[in-house]
Structures are given as C-alpha cells and as structure tokens.
Design brief:
Shape of chain B: globular
Mean pLDDT of chain A: 86
Largest interface: A-B, 55 and 66 residues
Low-confidence stretches of chain A: 83-89
Strand content of chain A: under 5%
Order of helices and strands of chain B: HHEEHHHHHHHHHHHHHHHHHEHHHH
Distance between the termini of chain B: 76 Å
Largest sheet of chain B: 2 strands, antiparallel
Number of strands of chain A: 1
Radius of gyration of chain B: 30 Å
Radius of gyration of chain A: 22 Å
Low-confidence stretches of chain B: none
Strand content of chain B: under 5%
Number of helices of chain A: 2
Distance between the termini of chain A: 47 Å
Shape of chain A: flat
Oligomer: heterodimer
C-alpha cells in the first residue's frame, strides 16, 4: 500500500503536535519564564515552525532582491552551477 | 612538567616538522605535540602559574595561567590533535608546520599575561593561518588568503595602536579589563575583527572555504575563539557586545540560507555561533562568561567535526556546492552519521554538547531579564538546525540518488578524527559536569530539566517540519552572495586604478631610463673609442644635416628624457652650489 506523501506529512505533523502537547502537559511540572508568552501550551511548536518559515522566506527575499548575483561581481564571470574544483586535500 | 608557555612546544614542533624529511615522523609530531601540550595543561600547569621576563625596560608575561585561559588551552590542544589526525594523509610539510604554528600562537595568545606578548602572537596567528588558505589549492585560494591577511593586518594594527595608546596614556602592560577610553575602543576594534563581529566579519566566509579540507578544520577552531577569549578577558560586561552578539547570531543564519558552497554555509554559522559567545561576554556575569567559555569549548569540537564532514565530501567528490552534490549518502554512510553528530551538537539537541553550552549563554541572558535577547537567540537556534542539521546534509548527501557523481575513498584517518570529535560532542552532552568543572566560575546551572528538554525538542522538531514543507525553496542556487567584503574588494580595485597604476607607470619609466643610461655608460666604459667615434659620427652628421636632426634621438623617450633629466639635475646642483658658496 502506498501512502500519499502529503497525507504522511500531515499525519506526522498531527502526531507531533499531539505528542508535544502530551509531553508538555504530563512531563513538564515547572515552566521557566523566558519571555512573554513562552510558557503557553505548544508555544515552542509554533516558534520552531514559524521561525523556520520566516527565516527562509525573509532571507530568500532579501537575497534575491539585493544580495545574490548570477555574475561574479568581482570578475564579471557567470557563476557556474557545476564548479568541479579540486582541492589538494 | 615545568611551567613554561605551551606555545614553546608547538613552535619547536612546527620547526621540526618543516625540517624533517621523513613523512611519518612529521605526522607523529603533528599529533604528538598538541597531546604533549594537553598533558602539560593537565599535569604541569595550574591556575596562578606565571612566567615573566624583562625585555628592555618592560616586564613581559608570556605565561599567565588561570581558569579561563586553561579551559581555552584544553580545547585548543584537543582541536590541534584532532586536526593533526584528520590531516594525516597530507604530505605538505609546510601546511603541517603552519597548522602547528597557528595552533601554537593561538595558545600563545590565550596564555599571554601582557599586551605586547598578546600582539606578537596575534600577528603570528594571522600569518600562519593565512598560509593554510594560500595552500588550499582552489582557484580562489591565493586571492582569498591575501585578502584574509590584509584584513587581519588591519586588525592587528588597530590592536597595536590601541595598546600603544593605552601605554602612552599611563596604562599598564597587564592584560586586564579595558575601560571605555579611545585605547579601549581601538583594542576592541582589533579583537572584533578576529571575532568576526558584523560588519567586520566578511573575511571569515570569504577565506575559510578556500583553504584545503584539512586547513579549514584548523581555521574553524582558533581565530574566532581566541577573540572570544580576549573579549572575555578585556571586555566582559560591555553592553554593546550583547547587541553585536545577537546581530551576529542572526546575520549568520540569514546568509547561510543564501549560500551554495557547503563550507561557506558552515562559515556563516561560525559567525552565528560566535555571536552567542560575544553576547555572553557582553552580559558579563559569571553565568554568562561561563556560558561563553563552555560554548567556545563545545563549538571548537562540533564545528571542527562539521568542517571535517564537509571536507570529506569535498575530498571524495571534488565538488563543494549544494547544486553539484546530493544523493551520495549510501556511498559514504559513516561520514554522514558522524557529520550528523556535529549537526545535532550545534543545533543543541539534548544529549549533544551544544545543548549544555548554548543554553548556559541563554540562561545568562534570562537571569539578566534580557528577554529580547533570549527570544532572538532561540530564533537563531532554529536557523542553525535548519541549515547545518537539515539543509546542508539533505542537499549534500540525500535527495535523489546521483550515480553521475564519482565518490572516491575517504582516508581512514579522517574518519578516526571525526569519530573522536563525535565521541567528545556526545560525551559532553551526556556528562556536562565534566565541562562545567573546567569553567572559570562555579556553575550551578542544570541543563536537563523536563521543561528545557521538551521545549528544545518541540522547537527543533517543528523546524524540521518547516524545512520539509519548504525544502523545494531551500536548494542551493548557483550565485554569489554579496557581503561586506564587497566594500574593500571594490575599493581595492579603485586603489589599484588610482594609486597602483600611476605608481607602477612611474617606476617603469624610471627603470627604463636608468637601464638606458647604464647601458650607454657601459658601452662607453668598455669601448671609449667607440664612444669617441660615435661622437665624431654625430658631429659630422650634425654638420651635414643640422644640429636639430643630430640631436633628434634626445626626443626619443626614455633616453632623451634621461639625458635631459641628468643635465637638468647637474644644472640645478651647480646653481645651488654656487649660491651656497657665495
């Protein structure tokens, strides 16, 4: 039986959230105050996910808008996809 | 063992390695010398040991051992030994000597009790490490090494200027906490360059990926961590370092998203990780300084392991970018597993070293109610796992199988070094008390609370979910990312046009001129008759065709210009002499 990859991903996310909530509720007896809101249930699940998405989206946006160049700004040459450079080891 | 500076052992070893022709002996020395230093630190040196000497009128202190210097000394000795094992396959004696010299001078900085000794080893550290980049063997290695040296010479000069200013304004030679004077800021500037504080950081991501695979392992260990040490020694509690450290932690993460070169990606994460240490130094409390020292210790080991893993992939395939790699995990599974130990350690997974060291810095911020710093440092942790734990290994080794990539054999010694580093990363993670007992201040922090473990697993687990959903957008792109080195690399070109070109033209002109005069004088001196007959020929030519035609050769540069210049000089000399005699 082949499982649809999207379904598998959704399953993993749901199970992950469920296990996280259970661990937080039953294993953690004292939550340290780190900053406002950090002690909410499943806060760190959201922090990890939203943080990851934000880093990727914002960095890529800044990179494509200003920083990433297809031509080497110092030599003017086109940047090759397969450099195949060697090292002396 | 006697109390003498550990740098002595390393410098002697470097000299021996550069002279001994037998390869195996050199390799044994390259691994044995750092182990000897480690033995000296364990059994021969104690906090409070000192070794002083008087030079001119100054009392220098090449050895001052205390808890802070000893913890850095331990990890530097371990890193140098692991690097020596990783580089076992190398035949290049000068790279071996440079690596030993680099590790040795880093130890020299760490145990320097006075500012002049510090400056001396600081500069030597730059020279020896630059050689490792020059010897990289990549097309960009030579220029990157030169830029690296240039930046570090600027840093060293800033440091020296600060030290001289400090001494000139009545400061002591002792290396202790600096105050907010001009001298203090200059010294901080010099240290900040080596710590890769943004925006003075670009030398690191520019140069480290251009070193050889073994060279970059050494580079990842010493320069930035000696800078963390001197910052902790001289600038603990300087608030600006908290802001700069947090900026570094995030800056490295952002640029790592854009990077395609696997070792450049890791280099950006050095900047990010050193940011935690710099922030810890800025907080300046005993907990935070402990955190900075502990994180430096853990970082040297896991970052070395990550560079070893990336280096093994480059060594085996000859490729260094994410776009050129992928789908080869099944052909180098041991390397992948060992790399992942380093990745889990840097990402601060429970049971790995980063978990017990990074959290100590964040705990220091938490205790000082720096909530914004706590939140942003956790955000940087998300980015760290995203890149070094997910993006880099996924696109370097995983993904669709690629049988078009030729994968050579990775030397066993490389694997052994990686294995030992991995054991240390896990060992520190499981037994943090071993590391905590080495720290400069008494430590009461307990990393393994249920809250901390669950929180970390939740955060990193859902970072992985985010990566999985966005992996299509995270692959490498064949581009070059502009960083702050753009300023001096472009400025360098401008300096070339405005200064170098006219200077070269002037020198060339005078060179031709002087050579021309010398050639003619030589002809006359050898055969005066020829000179005389030439003059006669010239006279008869002038009689036939006029003086102007005869002397037309004077208008032909550079001989004409030379003769005119010589005559003019004589004329001026005579006129001046006459005026003086009167």
């Amino acid at each position: 039986m082949k499982i649809d990859p999207r379904l598998a991903t959704a399953l993993v996310i749901v199970v992950g959230i469920g296990l996280s909530a259970l661990a937080e509720l039953y294993l953690v007896d004292h939550k340290e105050f780190l900053f406002e809101g950090s002690d909410l249930l499943l806060f760190w699940v959201g922090f990890g996910f939203v943080g990851c998405v934000a880093i990727v989206v914002l960095s890529k946006w800044v990179g494509h808008a200003f920083l990433m160049k297809h031509n080497d700004p110092y030599t003017g040459e086109h940047v090759e996809a397969e450099p195949g450079e060697g090292s002396d080891g | 063992m006697a109390s003498f500076p550990p740098v002595v052992i390393m410098v002697v070893a470097a000299l021996l390695v550069s002279l001994i022709p037998v390869s195996i002996v050199r390799k044994v020395i390259a691994v044995g010398a750092p182990l000897l230093v480690l033995a000296q630190l364990i059994w021969g040196l104690e906090a409070g040991d000192s070794w002083k000497l008087t030079w001119l009128t100054m009392e220098l202190e090449p050895l001052r051992a205390d808890a802070l210097s000893i913890v850095f000394g331990y990890v530097f000795a371990i890193a140098a030994a692991l690097g020596g094992i990783y580089a076992w396959h190398l035949g290049d004696r000068f790279q071996q000597a440079a690596a030993l010299g680099y590790a040795g001078t880093s130890l020299g900085v760490v145990f320097a009790g006075d500012l002049l000794t510090l400056v001396l080893f600081w500069e030597l550290m730059a020279l020896t490490s630059a050689y490792l980049i020059w010897a990289g063997g990549f097309p960009g290695s030579r220029d990157a090494g030169t830029r690296y040296l240039f930046v570090h010479m600027v840093g060293g000069s800033t440091l020296l200027a600060g030290v001289l200013w400090h001494l000139g304004t009545g400061g002591s030679l002792d290396f202790t906490l600096f105050e907010g004077s001009i001298a203090g800021w200059l010294v901080l500037g010099g240290f900040a360059i080596n710590a890769a504080v943004v925006p003075l950081h670009a030398w690191l991501s520019d140069a480290y990926p251009e070193a050889g695979v073994a060279g970059s392992v050494f580079l990842s260990a010493f320069t930035t961590k000696t800078a963390v040490y001197v910052l902790a020694r001289g600038f603990a509690g300087w608030e600006i370092l908290i802001f700069l450290g947090v900026i570094m932690a995030l800056y490295g993460v952002v640029f790592a998203v854009l990077e395609n070169d696997i070792r450049r990606l890791l280099a950006y994460h050095i900047i990010s990780q050193v940011g935690y240490m710099v922030a810890g130094v800025g907080i300046g409390t005993e907990i935070a300084i402990n955190g900075a020292a502990a994180h430096a210790f853990a970082h040297v080991l896991y970052k070395g392991l990550l560079f070893m893993g990336a280096g093994a992939a480059i060594y085996a395939t000859g490729r260094r970018t994410l776009t050129a790699l992928g789908g080869i995990a099944h052909r180098m599974p041991t390397v992948v597993v060992l790399y992942m130990v380093g990745a889990f350690a840097i990402s601060a997974f429970p049971l790995f070293s980063g978990f017990v060291s990074k959290s100590l810095v964040i705990y220091g911020a938490e205790k000082e109610h720096l909530y914004w710093a706590v939140a942003l440092l956790y955000l940087a942790s998300v980015g760290t796992f995203l890149h070094t734990g997910l993006k880099l290994p996924y696109f370097t080794w995983f993904g669709p199988r690629r049988d078009d990539i030729q994968v050579g054999r990775v030397p066993r010694t490389m694997i052994v070094a990686m294995f030992l580093a991995a054991v240390l990363c896990i060992g520190i993670g499981i037994f943090p008390v071993v590391l905590y007992n080495l720290l400069p201040y008494k430590n009461t922090y307990e990393p393994y609370t249920a809250d901390h473990v669950v929180r970390t697993l939740q955060m990193l687990g859902f970072t992985a979910v985010g990566f999985w959903l966005l992996r299509g957008r995270l692959g490498g792109e064949a581009t070059i990312t502009i960083d702050t080195d753009w300023l001096y690399r472009k400025a360098g070109r401008l300096v070339g046009i405005l200064v170098q070109t006219p200077l070269e033209a002037t020198f060339t002109c005078f060179e031709v001129l002087v050579n021309g005069i010398a050639r003619r004088l030589s002809v006359l001196a050898n055969t005066p008759a020829a000179g005389w007959s030439g003059l006669l020929r010239l006279t008869s030519y002038a009689q036939r065709n006029g003086a102007e035609a005869a002397l037309s050769f004077l208008g032909r540069p550079p001989v004409g210009f030379a003769l005119a210049a010589v005559l003019l000089t004589f004329a001026v000399v005579i006129l001046v002499a006459q005026a003086l005699v009167r």
